[in-house]
Amino acid sequence: LDLDAAKVELEEFIPHVREMSDSSIRKMAGRDLTRFKHFKKQGIAIKFGRFSQKENDQIKKNVKEFLSLTGIENAEKLLFTSRYPEERETINRLKAEFLFCGKIAEGIPRPWRLIYYRARKIFDPNNYKGRYTKEEKEKLKKYYAIHGNDWKKISEMMSRSNLSVAMKYSEIKSINYGPWTKEETQKLMHAVEDVIRKRSKLEAEKSSSEKSRRNLSIDREKLYQKLPWTEIETKVGTRYWRQCKQKWNSILTSKMTKGQQLYKGTKGLQAKINLIKRLYAMKVEDANEVNWEELSNAIGDVPRAYVQAKFYKLKVSCVPLWQRKTFTEIIDYLYDKKLPELEEKL
Hints:
Blueprint: H1 3-11, H2 22-31, H3 33-41, H4 53-70, H5 75-79, H6 88-97, H7 100-104, H8 112-123, H9 134-147, H10 151-158, H11 162-172, H12 182-206, H13 216-224, H14 229-236, H15 241-256, H16 265-282, H17 292-299, H18 304-318, H19 327-345
Helix pairs in contact: 1-2, 4-8, 9-10, 9-11, 10-11, 12-14, 14-15, 16-19, 17-18
């Protein structure tokens, strides 16, 4: 496919494909387009967002089978080949010969690049080294001052993963962990407005026939879904991206509910009851399969992140040993044990 044809075909599966670089589009056309069409024939939609346990298990299965097929010693050598310079040539030859790209993505309806990054996160031994010590944080600041955003180099120096050092630096460079000031809040709101305006302008340029008055639900979706939080973090300057996201959702919730306390008193009890009943009725096996947008009205007119946060608090406070339970077991416990208590209390 030429580039324009690739964009047209991929746009059916990746709506934002025209915002991607030409090299990324060409790679996706080669690695993903045939897979995407195959999933479409099966009636399976292409997924984004957090990986489910089922998908994580499939990645582990794919990696294990590929190791068995090629004789490569372990997953670290397969996924972090540059760490083994003496064996690099042999490993890369085996990866090419046994079609590594296709094999690792088997059975997973997602872009190959996301599957590959997830596999690297699962199998990188440097990802599971616990909390950063005070000394490590100081080293990280020092290395960043010398090497800037070269996370690959910094990760090797610290024996941590690329993602881990990048995320930790983003967190520790923030200078404010207290209540948000009025100035910070204004910066956040301007930053979000800026990225949404740019995105809307791009979309309008793509479709000259687009109506000037968009559907309300589409506008709302833009307010809290898939915003570039690291870019927003940079614009705010004094807060970690996760703080920005949490604060923005808090602002949205207050605006959308006109400042009403939806989760207090009898309203709060009713909201918890509605949430448990709706989750139970969905009969899904993984939290990533829940349509949180649909659940918003179980509590009120609120962003999806607000509902997710309330569910998290509910399971942590009410379900014993919830970390060891599956999503289905958590929902069943809430429905069988907690729901009758809440209804009686109400």
